[in-house]
Write a structure and sequence with these properties.
Elements: H1 3-13, E1 17-21, E2 26-29, H2 31-43, H3 47-78
Helix pairs in contact: 1-3
């Protein structure tokens, strides 16, 4: 899988993530997200690649969630 293919799959999955537990590599998804990740699981021949996709998705979601807390405070101060 190329860098672009991995990025596109992660970005397609992110809007459907509702919560993550990075230490367990656990992703809670909407129904649409579950269908999407199931299709990814069938598509990947290598379980390691699928786990990498899950790990990257968890990491990016967690990072975005943390970053938005700081930015939300900034926007509140501006108002």
């Amino acid at each position: 899988m190329t860098e672009i293919e991995l990025r596109d799959r992660v970005f397609a999955l992110l809007p459907h993530v509702t919560e993550v537990n990075p230490s367990d590599n656990f992703i809670e998804l909407t129904h649409k997200g579950t269908v999407l990740i199931d299709s990814y699981k069938e598509e990947f021949k290598d379980e390691g690649q699928f786990n990498a996709l899950c790990h990257l998705t968890c990491h990016l979601y967690s990072r975005a969630k943390e970053e938005t807390k700081g930015w939300a405070k900034y926007f509140e101060e501006e108002n």
